[in-house]
Specification:
alpha+beta; HIT family, subunit A; five-stranded antiparallel β-sheet; 3 helices
Length: 140
Amino acid sequence: MPPPSGGEPGCIFCAIVHQREPAHVVYEDDEAIAFLDLYPHTRGHLLVVPRRHVDRLTDLPEAEYAEFLRAISNVCRRVDRLSRHYHVSVNQGTLAGQVVFHLHVHIIPRYSEENPFAVHPRVRLDDTEGRALVSLLGAP
């Protein structure tokens, strides 16, 4: 359930949380939502975000850590359907690669030894592939 505020103006993740922008959602609960990254490093690259707008992990109230971690764990179990190997990461600040300043955790499946973070163009997620992944990852 989205908070009543409507989120931070100009924040794309708040717009997704409040359904003002489309997303391929695979998980949601009262505190968090998980959706496919539009420019994935690998097939099934997901973002888990709290519904509350906070820029950084350290801005999230400690009382909300358990619920947020529970959502991340739930999404990781879903990613196990694609690969038992994956990265779970948080970029904090521009020098660490944070581009959207709404806390988000990346869950990036690995399928080979190739480094998915090597410099190569990231291709926008195709809607057909997005729907197929939601079908695979969205159900409990």
